[in-house]
Amino acid sequence: MENIALIESFSEFKDDKLIDRVTLMAILEDVFRNALKKKYGSDDNFDIIINPDKGDMEIWRNRVVVADGEVEDENSEISLSEARKIEPDFEVGEDVSEEVKLIQLGRRAILALRQNLISKIHEHDNTNLYKQFKDLIGDIYTAEVHHVRPKAVILVDDEGNEIVLPKEKQIPSDFFRKGDNVRGIIESVELKGNKPQIIMSRTSEKFLEKLFEQEIPEVFDGLITVKKVVRIPGEKAKVAVDSYDDRIDPVGACVGMKGSRIHGIVRELGNENIDVINYTTNTQLYITRALSPAKVSSVKIDEDKKAAEVFLKLEEVSKAIGRGGHNIKLAGLLTGYELDVIREGNIAEEEDDVELTEFSDEIDGWVIDEFAKIGLDTARSVLKQDVADLVRRTDLEEETILDVMRILKNEFEE
Question: What are the residue boundaries of the Transcription factor NusA first KH domain, all occurrences included (predicted)?
Fold first, then answer.
């Protein structure tokens, strides 16, 4: 096989692997030099001439002419009679350059060359891919669903790179079909053997932060700073924002008129409820804002324990705790303080109030648990609520709630 024909067959990798021709030729030279070392023991006296424009190459073996019978190193010396077969006027002491055809290396060596080339190109591609995606960690990336598996969704980008979206990195309400475009952040890149594994996440706080940068011009321009993001993916999130320009209302700018700006972010996150609050270095005020939509009466802080007692009127307690306890949990994560809710209310009422668990013989345990999830654990705390509001905030039917209220009212009427 002629050199140029073999090079052309190897050049198919250029298109398959999106590798530039100059890099391909550099890899080729390295591969051929390794083959020459195996065949001749050294490649020091070989010249490899590569023409990246034409995609061809030549291999020349350089030896010194010595008298017949005086050859000590066949790799670097050639006898006079052998040299004159190449060119009849050679004399002892002159240099001979002889072209080496690849066919002279033998069929097995050529097959090994091809395997070595494939390996080197894959190694090059994987190194470049690893570096490329390492630089993209923390950035939003879009790819298409290629295959949906029980534990992960396999995505492919425009360049054919495979990206993994594990089940635990998906929002609970996520549902994907083949061909869907998916957005997330590149969370990590790991080398599995020689192949990089690219991991995407849609549950990371960083994803929400980057969505703010992408969707809200003032955040992108740096006029508004996202100070901290905390999330319960698919359920609720709190985002603290700040601006160094007093003329800008950071919360208003992020939410937009009637929620127009944040709507796209909420939809992207499976209707995740997002509270945007003004950041402040005033700890009491920050905790008060973090517990929104509840109205806090006062806050007592213990800096040593990084804890705070939050005093609220009875009707505000359930709002502070939130559905499933999400609101108070996120407020604690946002502020960095362990928050303890203290109820304020009518002392007489509190003294004759009854824990819901006392009604376990008349009310099912799972119903009591549903009320507890939104911070309602006593009879009076339930009776003060609006029925329609309870239907919205719990997984209970209106008929069940009315039945519970009837039982509770009977307790106090008796």
Answer: 202-279
User: Rounded distance, CA 202 to CA 115, Å?
Assistant: 39
Q: List, for residues 168-189, the tens digit of each pLDDT value.
A: 999 999 999 999 999 999 999 8
- Spatial separation of the C-alpha atoms in residues 185 and 160, rounded to whole Å: 18
The string of pLDDT tens digits covering residues 181-214 is 999 999 998 877 667 889 999 999 999 999 999 9
Taking the mean position of all CA atoms in its chain, how far away is CA 91?
69
Q: Which pair of tokens denotes residue 78?
A: 């050639």
pTM (global) more than 0.85: no
- Helix, strand, coil tally for the chain in percent (to 5): 45, 25, 30
Phi, psi of 182 (to 5 degrees): -125, 135
DSSP letter string, 31-69: HHHHHHHHHHS--TTEEEEEETTTTEEEEEEEEEEE-TT
Domains and CATH numbers, the chain: 3-131 (3.30.1480), 136-201 (2.40.50.140), 205-309+317-335 (3.30.300.20), 347-413 (1.10.150)
CB atoms within 10 A of CB 73: 12
